[in-house]
Automatic annotation (TrEMBL), chain A:
Residues 4-248 form the ABC transporter domain. It comes from Chelatococcus reniformis. This is Hemin import ATP-binding protein HmuV. The lineage of its organism: Bacteria, Pseudomonadati, Pseudomonadota, Alphaproteobacteria, Hyphomicrobiales. SUPFAM superfamilies: P-loop containing nucleoside triphosphate hydrolases. Part of the ABC transporter complex HmuTUV involved in hemin import. Responsible for energy coupling to the transport system. NCBIfam families: PRK13548.1 (NF010068). Keywords: ATP-binding, Nucleotide-binding, Translocase, Transport. Pfam families: ABC_tran. InterPro entries: AAA+_ATPase, ABC_transporter-like_ATP-bd, P-loop_NTPase.
UniProtKB/TrEMBL annotation, chain B:
The keyword ATP-binding does not apply. GO terms for biological process: siderophore-iron import into cell. The lineage of its organism: Bacteria, Pseudomonadati, Pseudomonadota, Alphaproteobacteria, Hyphomicrobiales. It comes from Chelatococcus reniformis. It is found in: Cell membrane. It is a multi-pass membrane protein. The keyword Metal-binding does not apply. InterPro entries: ABC_BtuC-like, ABC_transptr_permease_BtuC. GO terms for molecular function: transmembrane transporter activity. GO terms for cellular component: plasma membrane. This is Hemin ABC transporter permease. Its main location: membrane. Belongs to the binding-protein-dependent transport system permease family. FecCD subfamily.
Length: 283, 362
């Protein structure tokens, strides 16, 4: 059964619709990737889906019940969120930040069990070696990995929390934005692993190649509206990429037959592809 | 190596924290030591050894005190002053820590952002206006009314700050500090107006409020302030987890499972209650709320489960220490304690600003 349903969900600020009547279902065990140009409403969609924002019209249902009716602590056992990079004005260590993820959800667990979860989560984010470091001294990418570890720890504790719904979801808002290529792949590998364990994963990505490589399903947003949803190659056809992102996409084939996109700028003068060596007309 | 050790001191451990129990025990001893000195210091000096033996006598642990006069001074003057100092210092420090957690910024402080000024204005209004109204009825202002008025003043100011500085769920600290300056100036102007229209007796009371003093401590004051202090100290542990999570951001705290609005509301109410009680009993005493939590964080880290109780203890000790200086520096007269805390606290604040850079404001 569907875990999360967006039923004609819209979110408007001062009359402007950031998310416009989106219909979407998220199933356990799938990795759903949301793509779209800047300002398409991707982050707002994540906020609606994780309960941070309530839809101005339409409904968001978690396990068939309106999301707003779940208390924060109960929701926290069922889903974790990796927001876009966040600052911290206080000198928490990396270990302490990750432990915050368990503070509510893992309250009833024995301390030893909690520490195991923290250690495992630190390893999953590849930040074990930073455990004792002050969060404030980390780079942007390292911070992102710490928060990923925090989310992983929260899910691990939530799985054992008594009385909580067992099916879980993970929301990742641009998780790879400031990561090097190694950690991009590592993080998405961990996300896939969680999906295979039955967690529903919704990730916002900008890299269409990464999206095509890891996603079970891709959702394409523009102007708050859902343009396409489906298997990566269906949703991300060359024609649709041109229409939504205003770039040319050439689809190459990898060794295993997977799609690899090569992008180039659409020439605004209309005579086709931008030639190599020519000055960028966009400036 | 246990897992806890591994987390605390891994191969790359850059940060070391002391254990909670040793730290709190050390602070309790510090409080006790300063309290004994405080009870001995003043026009009639009582050596620490005799202070301890007199108190032991009251508790039935030793023979009756040798000097009835010293026992009387201790019981009627020094003890209430010491107890009040500990309570107010603790409350101011905890209020500061709560406010810094609420605004997610280590530079927030009730005295800097106008909360103390708002509480003082309400108290001053009660003294001057209430005095005139009640004079018609032939009674004075009951002291118990002052903490209530100061609480209301602190609450209104804190709420105003929060509403002004928060847009769409994000609290801008720059806006908060600037709005605090404006609110403090407004409250100061209105307090000035009250000074202008007050008579001599009221003026003496008002001067006391603006500079702060533990001088008027009586058991009646202690009893009037105790419920508010007790509420702050008893309820603060319930906010610790929520405030920890709030440091990540309001959205993040919600993701973790915190009922964010409830934590924020409770923090605002407790801050206003604590500052109101402190201002009502001792006037405006600045900078305890910013210096103490900062010192604790330097040693013990930002975890509120330890930060709040440790701040309470260190705040009590620090204010009492300042009060001893206030009594001794110009003996037999007394300095207003607010002068001392500001003389130490303001440079400390500037140092904090310079060290952190302007990034601390955003």
């Amino acid at each position: 059964m569907t875990l999360l349903t967006l039923d004609a969900a819209s979110y408007a600020v001062r009359g402007r619709k950031l998310v416009d009547a989106v219909e979407l279902a998220l199933d356990p065990g799938e990795l759903l990737v949301v793509v779209g140009p800047n300002g398409a409403g991707k982050s707002t969609l994540v906020k609606l889906a994780c309960g941070e924002l309530a839809p101005t019209t339409g409904r968001v249902l978690w396990e068939g019940q309106e999301l707003g009716r779940w208390p924060a602590w109960s929701l926290a056992a069922a889903r974790a969120v990796l927001p876009q990079a966040s600052g911290l004005a206080f000198p928490f260590t990396v270990g302490e930040v990750v432990r915050l993820g368990l503070d509510v959800v893992g309250r009833a667990l024995p301390a030893r069990r909690r520490e195991e979860m923290v250690r495992d989560a630190l390893a999953r984010g590849d930040v074990s070696h930073l455990t004792g470091r002050s969060y404030q001294t980390l780079s942007g990418g390292e911070r992102q990995r710490v928060h990923f570890a925090r989310a992983v720890a929260q899910l691990a504790a939530g799985r054992l929390a008594a009385g909580a719904p067992r099916r879980q979801a993970l929301f990742l808002d641009e998780p790879t934005a400031s990561l090097d290529i190694h950690h991009q792949l590592l993080l998405m590998h961990e996300a896939r692993r969680l999906a295979r364990e039955g967690v529903a994963v919704l990730a916002v990505l900008h890299d269409l190649n990464l999206a095509a490589a890891v996603a079970d399903r891709v959702v394409l947003l523009r102007g708050g509206q859902l343009i396409a949803a489906g298997r990566p190659e269906e949703a991300l056809s060359a024609a649709r990429i041109r229409e939504v992102f205003a770039v040319e996409a050439e689809i190459l084939r990898g060794a295993a037959g997977e799609a690899i996109y090569a992008f180039s700028m659409t020439d605004p003068s209309g005579d086709g592809r931008l030639k190599p060596g020519r000055k960028d007309p966009v400036g | 190596m246990t897992s806890a050790d591994a987390l605390r001191a891994g191969p790359d451990a850059g940060v070391r924290r002391p254990g909670a129990i040793p730290l709190l025990a050390a602070l309790v001893m510090l409080c006790a030591a300063i309290a004994v000195v405080s009870m001995g210091a003043g026009a009639v000096s009582i050596p620490p050894g005799r202070v301890v033996s007199i108190i032991a006598g009251w508790l039935g642990l030793a023979d009756a005190p040798a000097s009835a006069r010293e026992a009387l001074i201790l019981y009627d003057i020094r003890l209430p002053r010491t107890v009040l100092g500990l309570m107010v210092g603790a409350t101011l420090a905890v209020s500061g820590a709560l406010m810094q957690g609420l605004f997610r910024n280590p530079l927030a402080d009730p005295s800097l952002v106008g909360v103390s000024a708002g509480a003082a204005l309400a108290a001053a209004t009660t003294i001057v206006v209430g005095d005139r109204l009640l004079a018609a009825l032939g009674t004075g202002v009951p002291f118990a009314l002052l903490p209530l008025a100061a609480f209301a003043g602190g609450l209104v100011t804190t709420l105003a700050l929060y509403v002004i500085a928060t847009r769409e769920g994000r609290t801008s600290v720059t806006t908060m500090l600037l709005a605090g300056v404006a609110l403090a100036a407004l409250a100061g102007a209105l307090t000035g107006l009250l000074v202008y229209i007050s008579d001599d007796r009221q003026l003496r009371d008002l001067t006391f409020w603006s500079l702060g003093s533990l001088g008027g401590a009586t058991w009646a004051k202690v009893v009037a302030v105790a419920p508010a202090v007790a509420a702050v100290l008893v309820l603060m542990p319930f906010l610790a987890r929520g405030l920890n999570a709030l440091l990540l951001g309001e959205a993040e705290a919600f993701h973790i499972g915190i009922a964010v609005e409830r934590v924020k509301t409770a923090a605002i109410l407790l801050t206003a209650l604590g500052v109101g009680a402190a201002v009502a009993s001792c006037g405006t005493i600045g900078f305890i709320g910013i210096v103490v939590p900062h010192l604790v964080r330097l040693v013990a880290g930002p975890d509120h489960r330890l930060l709040l109780p440790a701040s309470a203890l260190l705040g009590g000790a620090l204010l009492l220490g300042a009060d001893i200086l206030a009594r001794l520096l110009v003996a037999p007269s007394e300095l207003p304690i607010g002068i001392l805390t500001a003389a130490v606290g303001a440079p400390f604040f500037l140092w904090l600003l310079l060290r952190r850079g302007f990034g601390a404001l955003s």
